Amino acid sequence: NAGVMQNPRHLVRRRGQEARLRCSPMKGHSHVYWYRQLPEEGLKFMVYLQKENIIDESGMPKERFSAEFPKEGPSILRIQQVVRGDSAAYFCASSPREGNTEAFFGQGTRLTVV
Amino acid sequence: DQQVKQNSPSLSVQEGRISILNCDYTNSMFDYFLWYKKYPAEGPTFLISISSIKDKNEDGRFTVFLNKSAKHLSLHIVPSQPGDSAVYFCAATPLGQNFVFGPGTRLSVLP
């Protein structure tokens, strides 16, 4: 049973470009969470999705950021018109979420904006 | 407003001794608590969890204690090993909602 898969592991974008980060949850998991970790900081919640639904996006910046988790395929975190401050590690986690259960994390995507 | 707090940014412990990592929370709706370990350039790895109906959960060298009235939990590692050196995150969640993480505590286990 493969774990949570994120790709790419490293992504370099110039200011103003778009960044697309992909997350394939563990098999059987229908709940996905995205977190951002800035250097020397903790994990900041961004968005919580179920298949085809956004459950909680209270941690997502209002502009330039969007997330989806389609019926088929991975969850996508999209950042439009990236700026230097978007440089961070972005982690995805998944859970089956039937009652209380842990979330399992991917290896993360390190985004560098140059 | 930080709902999950880990007031010690770092902790150093001698190999073989006990490591105690602390976590405080403010949201009384949290009913499930977790500890994750993170090495540099890797994703967080789940360690141990506890439901609010319990006050202790043990798994090998790791024990988590929960004091609901004080809104406090702690992770005990006994005996500590050099491979335990990592950043430890406390997380909490109300049922059906997202996981809220603390800022982490960097544990260094000295040989």
Topology:
The complex is a heterodimer of chains A (114) and B (111).
Chain A: E1 5-7, E2 10-13, E3 19-24, E4 31-37, E5 43-50, E6 53-56, E7 65-68, E8 75-79, E9 88-95, E10 104-105, E11 109-113
Parallel strand pairs in A: 2-11
Antiparallel strand pairs in A: 1-3, 3-8, 4-5, 4-9, 5-6, 7-8, 9-10, 9-11
Chain B: E1 4-5, E2 10-14, E3 19-25, E4 32-38, E5 45-51, E6 56-59, E7 62-67, E8 72-77, E9 86-93, E10 100-101, E11 105-110
Characterise this structure.
The complex is a heterodimer of chains A (114) and B (111). In chain A, 0% of the residues lie in helices and 49% in strands. Chain A has strands at residues 5-7, 10-13, 19-24, 31-37, 43-50, 53-56, 65-68, 75-79, 88-95, 104-105, 109-113. In chain A, the strands form two sheets. In chain A, strands 2, 4, 5, 6, 9, 10 and 11 form a seven-stranded mixed sheet that branches. Chain A has a four-stranded antiparallel sheet with strand order 1-3-8-7, with no helix packed on it. In chain A, a hairpin with an 8-residue loop joins strand 9 and strand 10. Chain A starts with a strand and ends with a strand. Chain B is mainly beta. In chain B, a hairpin with a 6-residue loop joins strand 4 (32-38) and strand 5. The mean pLDDT of chain B is 94. At the A-B interface, strand 5 and strand 10 of A face strand 4, strand 5 and strand 10 of B.
